Inverse folding.
């Protein structure tokens, strides 16, 4: 396992910081997915996550340094109350299900409801299917067809990715897309700043709102 | 020094400074591509916004005359001029001779055009000459000005030469004297014409020249040296401006007063709103007579036809007081300053803590300020002496009780009180709107929608204890002695909360359950306190119930006690007599015991059914909740039970943040990844203990089957039910030394009642109360602000329909903005208050305008009911159009009034001026009050008169071609100004 650079999480040198959560049923491959993206490493078995864990990755988007604080959550039912507390303030969610596990697919709707209940209304979500091994090897064990996944994603208004952490398929693309939609949403809300009183000093703060100067978590409440 | 034999040469090619200057002007003109500029067509009408409302642009560059630096600026109306294409140029060259005869240069057309006579907002040269594109040269030397005639002539000559050399048709002006004087002269050269622009400015108006007749005489004299040349047709435009800026004639009681009266009943939750001063400084009416023939009207010293009543065009403009005092802004803004006060409560109250404070309060303070450091002198020096009214002090019991009752005793009719109070009734509008009840309903709907949106803010639910607390505290700040009042009440409130906590009284008026992270922090903290109180009450209830059952259990327990030594037997657990003590003692004794679950797995479990408790549960297994499906334990084949589990500790967002920070800190070191898991393992550990207690003889695989079923693969059986492949734990659960196994080994069977509490209600409750009482003023204000902001927004939303047209989208945006801001750790309240102030001003202006324009017509001695009905109808429609005017005035710099004096709006305006006039006359004549004033007296003397006179006339001689001539005259109280443009034909003279 390649170790993360030591200063990655304390690095203050960024323009934006996005908090992203990876959620989904237990053992759908959330931790593997995160390790593949953040460290470009893969282990066939990670210890089941207890509570929450996180990794940091800085990417460049539109000439801006975007620091991603990615939270990995435990998927077990009993951890729901603990993990949902962390939803607030997250700007993006990666919702995963396992292609070989019907239950994990059936729960997608529930997870979306959880997001709606506990997160801020501007949070963005992408739906990710994981193949717990080599993608082509898994085709035999597949129980959720691509079409069903795509259809559900469309119905819920989510972007859809078929990924494999083991083979490093679509992992990076998925994160990049999520960052893009967060950026889009952000600039959308920053655009308008109406003024009632002509000549009143128009708001100048909108632009610096999302460029935190301080440390991690400074920008959001929880 | 030179050789005298050589002939002396003088270099005549050396350019003079003057020539250099002209060359630089020419270069500039060429560079800006001005020589071939032509108009794109006649200008649009002024009302559709050509010169006044179009987009003006400018471009500047510096030029120097010797060492005198100047700035040349081109001002042009975007799109009104263009560069002539080469084709056009060629074509024009052919037709040139005819062209010269046919049309005038475009700038001259503009001089004569009457479509753009009085633009609302434009450069002074544009207003006076009606031009669309021109150059202006201004000194760029600090205070240095062009003041002498010499310099003026020199510059004008240079400009003229440059224009002619480059064949540029744009007027070129020279700024004279100080820019404030607005005096310029200029020249325009085109098609063989020279047009000279000149100005005169006097402090006193020469007698007679403030009338149209006088100015006409002047104009004609200038053109043909004869005022008797009556056949010269002069086009005239006139505009008079009337102004109202003294509103003292209004009854004072008609202005809503919100002043904080000490004797007034405390109205909690009803924030004051509206302007405390007149927000409108000037109301101007401009009446104009555009495009008159000179002989149509008579305006002389003796008589004038020019009264507003017969002016065809009316136009109104408003000037506002900048930054007027507004109640809500002041109320919130002043409290905002508390955000920067870092003094502790102790410091604030230190100087106050004397014998006159009731002993209970002092007691609270004593308890809190552990080692009391008294710094009264310091406190006195830091706190500015409060100039506020001190008559109402919170030390006065009666008032304090009022405050405390408001906060802690929910009143049922709160809602209705709030909605009925604070509603400013503007008779006319509401009756007018009342007649259109559908519209009113719609408005109510809209307000409701806004309130719905407000509910989504991260604050507290309306009228919850947090809401009332916030409002009472800001009220205490404002009316009961500033920060001292605030601090006193805060201490009192926290004391009351502690009382609730200690006596186990649930705090009412707040949603039950774990802290709602969608609400503000104070809301979460109070909820958390309730969680503590509830948990403790439940525990105490359990304990007292056990007390009652104590005898039989004790007996059994005692006999049980003497049986096997407790530590050796994993199924041992029934130890009720120690229940009361358990929470006080830590689990250190038990964890130090050797845990031998896995080793003793195989041993058959005693199931002493005869030792049943009164709850009818087997003694060996404890804390069972319900059977877990049909699953059987792997080793004993017993039914698997779901244990009663401890719920994870409720958390407020600051606790969560603390935990997240701790995880972040740990996780930054890759080696500490295990630590983060360990840090969060308490809940998992507790679940394992419960599971063990409920399922004697279980193993980790059993636990996993319940807790994380995906980590267990069921055994594969063949048709006969024989196990082909044994069930197994997933790979990740079997990694040697992984935390799940570690924890499983450490966990001992213990029902929740004997476990270490995940949620220590006493500790958490004390922590919150301690935190609240040791806060600085700024922390307190931060806790209170969310609800206060929401209350303010609600107040504004109630009046959202009284504001300018953009009010609704503005408020929608503001609420959205607030929503986002309140999620920040440090919301920018200043900015939110500023935006709310903007809305407040908007509403205040609109209300003030309505008040001025919606004056009730005096009820005429009525005749038939039909007539009365018609009058009512008429008034109704006028109300609607006056409302339109009010909204227009708020949107636009100038509002044209269709129909002038005869329109409903015109009548309302006339009335307004008439009332002001009446008030003025009242001192001298008494009986004018009810009578209408004659038309000539309805309005005051105009504060400004503007005349534009223009004509075409051949100059300098009768044989010359006709050119455009124009005079613009403006006469105000202390200024008489003429701006003239006179053309001379340079080809035929």
């Amino acid at each position: 396992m390649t170790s993360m650079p030591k200063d990655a999480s304390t690095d203050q040198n960024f323009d934006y910081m996005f908090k992203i959560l990876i959620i989904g049923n237990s053992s759908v491959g959330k931790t593997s997915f995160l390790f593949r993206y953040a460290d470009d490493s893969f282990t066939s078995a990670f210890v089941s996550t207890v509570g929450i864990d996180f990794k940091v990755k800085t990417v460049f988007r539109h000439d801006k340094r975007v620091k991603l604080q990615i939270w990995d959550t435990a998927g077990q039912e009993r951890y729901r109350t603990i993990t949902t507390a962390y939803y607030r303030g997250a700007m993006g969610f990666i919702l995963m299900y396992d292609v070989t596990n019907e239950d994990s697919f059936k729960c997608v709707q529930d997870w979306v409801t959880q997001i709606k209940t506990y997160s801020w209304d501007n949070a963005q979500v992408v739906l990710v299917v994981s193949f717990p091994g080599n993608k082509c090897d898994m085709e035999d064990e597949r129980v959720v067809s691509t079409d069903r996944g795509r259809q559900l994603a469309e119905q819920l208004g989510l972007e859809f990715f078929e990924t494999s952490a083991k083979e490093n398929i679509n992992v990076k693309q998925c994160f990049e897309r999520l960052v893009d939609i967060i950026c889009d949403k952000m600039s959308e809300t920053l655009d308008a700043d109406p003024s009632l009183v002509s000549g009143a000093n128009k708001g100048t703060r909108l632009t610096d709102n999302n460029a935190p100067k301080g440390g991690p978590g400074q920008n959001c409440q929880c | 020094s030179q050789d005298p034999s050589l002939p002396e040469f003088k270099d005549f090619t050396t350019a003079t400074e003057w020539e250099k200057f002209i060359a630089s002007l020419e270069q500039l003109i060429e560079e800006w591509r001005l020589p071939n500029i032509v108009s794109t067509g006649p200008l649009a009408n002024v009302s559709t916004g050509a010169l006044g409302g179009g987009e003006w642009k400018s471009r500047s560059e510096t030029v120097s005359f010797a060492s005198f630096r100047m700035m040349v600026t081109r001002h042009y109306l975007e799109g009104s001029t263009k560069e002539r294409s080469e084709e056009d140029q060629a074509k024009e060259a052919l037709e040139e001779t005819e062209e010269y005869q046919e049309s005038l240069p475009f700038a001259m057309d503009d001089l004569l055009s009457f479509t753009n006579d009085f633009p609302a907002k434009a450069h002074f040269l544009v207003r006076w000459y009606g031009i669309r594109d021109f150059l202006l040269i201004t000194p760029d030397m600090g205070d240095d000005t062009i003041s002498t005639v010499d310099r003026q002539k020199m510059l004008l000559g240079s400009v003229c030469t440059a224009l002619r050399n480059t064949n540029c048709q744009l007027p070129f002006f020279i700024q004279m004297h100080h820019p404030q004087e607005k005096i310029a002269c200029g020249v325009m050269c085109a098609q063989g014409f020279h047009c000279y622009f000149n100005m005169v400015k006097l402090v006193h108006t020469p007698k007679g020249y403030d009338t149209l007749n006088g100015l006409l005489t002047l104009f004609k004299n200038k053109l043909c040296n004869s005022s008797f040349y009556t056949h010269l047709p002069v086009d005239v435009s006139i505009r008079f401006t009337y102004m109202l800026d003294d509103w003292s004639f209004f009854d004072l009681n008609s202005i809503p007063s919100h002043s904080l009266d000490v004797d007034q009943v405390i109205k909690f939750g009803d924030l004051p709103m509206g302007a405390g001063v007149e927000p409108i400084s000037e109301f101007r009416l401009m009446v104009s007579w555009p495009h008159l023939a000179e002989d149509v009207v008579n305006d002389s010293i003796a008589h004038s036809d020019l009264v507003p009543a017969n002016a065809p065009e009316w136009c109104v403009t408003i000037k506002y007081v900048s930054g007027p005092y507004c109640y809500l802004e002041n109320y919130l803004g002043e409290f905002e300053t508390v955000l920067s006060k870092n003094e502790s409560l102790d410091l604030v109250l230190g100087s106050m803590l004397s014998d006159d404070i009731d002993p209970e309060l002092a007691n609270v303070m004593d308890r809190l300020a552990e080692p009391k450091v008294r710094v009264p002198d310091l406190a006195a020096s830091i706190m500015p002496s409060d100039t506020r009214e001190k008559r109402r002090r919170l030390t006065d019991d009666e008032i304090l009780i009022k405050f405390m009752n408001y906060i802690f005793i929910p009143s049922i009719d709160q809602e209705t009180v709030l909605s009925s109070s604070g509603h400013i009734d503007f008779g006319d509008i509401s009756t007018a709107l009342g007649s259109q009840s559908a519209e009113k309903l719609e408005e109510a709907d809209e307000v409701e929608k806004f309130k719905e949106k407000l509910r989504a803010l991260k604050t507290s639910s309306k009228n919850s204890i947090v809401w009332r607390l916030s409002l009472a505290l800001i009220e205490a700040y404002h009316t009961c002695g500033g920060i001292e009042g605030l601090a006193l009440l805060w201490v009192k409130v926290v004391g009351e909360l502690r009382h609730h906590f200690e006596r186990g009284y649930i705090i009412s008026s707040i949603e039950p359950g774990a802290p709602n992270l969608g609400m503000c922090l104070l809301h979460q903290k109070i909820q958390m306190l309730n969680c503590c109180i509830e948990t403790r009450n439940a525990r105490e209830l359990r304990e007292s119930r056990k007390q009652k059952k104590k005898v039989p259990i004790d007996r059994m327990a005692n006999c049980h006690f003497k049986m096997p030594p407790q530590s050796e037997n994993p199924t041992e657990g029934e130890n009720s007599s120690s229940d009361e003590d358990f929470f006080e003692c830590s689990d250190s004794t038990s964890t130090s015991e050797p845990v031998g679950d896995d080793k003793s797995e195989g041993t058959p479990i005693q199931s002493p059914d005869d030792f049943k408790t009164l709850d009818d549960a087997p003694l060996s297994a404890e804390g069972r909740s319900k059977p877990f499906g049909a699953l059987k334990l792997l080793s004993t084949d017993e039914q698997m039970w779901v244990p009663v589990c401890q719920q994870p500790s409720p958390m407020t967002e600051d606790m969560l943040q603390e935990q997240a920070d701790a995880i972040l800190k740990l996780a930054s070191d890759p080696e500490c990844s295990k630590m983060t898991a360990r840090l969060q393992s308490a809940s998992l550990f507790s679940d394992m203990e419960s599971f063990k207690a409920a399922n004697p003889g279980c193993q980790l695989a059993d636990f996993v089957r319940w807790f994380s079923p995906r980590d267990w693969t069921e055994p594969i059986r063949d048709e006969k039910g024989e196990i082909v492949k044994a069930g197994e734990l997933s790979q990740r659960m079997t990694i040697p030394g992984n935390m799940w196994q570690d924890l499983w080994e450490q966990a001992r069977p213990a029902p929740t009642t004997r476990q270490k509490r995940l949620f220590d209600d006493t500790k958490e409750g004390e922590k919150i109360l301690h935190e609240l009482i040791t806060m600085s003023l700024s922390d307190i204000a931060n806790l209170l602000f969310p609800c206060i902001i929401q209350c303010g927004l609600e107040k504004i939303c109630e009046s959202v329909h009284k504001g300018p047209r953009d009010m609704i989208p503005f408020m929608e945006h503001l609420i959205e903005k607030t929503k986002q801001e309140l999620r920040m750790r440090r919301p920018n309240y200043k900015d939110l208050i500023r935006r709310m102030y903007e809305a407040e001003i908007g509403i205040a202006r609109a209300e003030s305008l309505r008040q001025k324009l919606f004056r009730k017509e005096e009820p005429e001695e009525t005749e038939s009911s039909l007539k009365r009905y018609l009058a009512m109808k008429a008034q109704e429609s006028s109300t609607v159009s006056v409302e339109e005017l009010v909204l227009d005035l708020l949107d636009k710099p100038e509002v044209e009034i269709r129909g002038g004096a005869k329109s409903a709006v015109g009548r309302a305006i006339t009335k307004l001026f008439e009332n002001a006039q009446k008030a003025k006359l009242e001192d001298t004549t008494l009986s004018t009050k009810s009578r209408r004033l004659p038309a000539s007296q309805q309005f005051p003397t105009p504060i400004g008169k503007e005349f534009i006179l223009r004509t075409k006339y051949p100059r300098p001689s009768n044989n010359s071609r006709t050119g455009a001539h124009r005079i613009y005259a403006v006469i105000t109280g202390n200024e008489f100004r003429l701006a003239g443009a006179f053309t001379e034909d340079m080809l035929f003279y």
User: Anything to note?
Assistant: Chain A touches chain B through 53 residues (CB under 8 Å). Chain A has seven helices and six strands. The helical segments of chain A are 30-39, 80-84, 102-106, 108-118, 135-138, 146-156, 171-191. The radius of gyration of chain A is 18 Å.
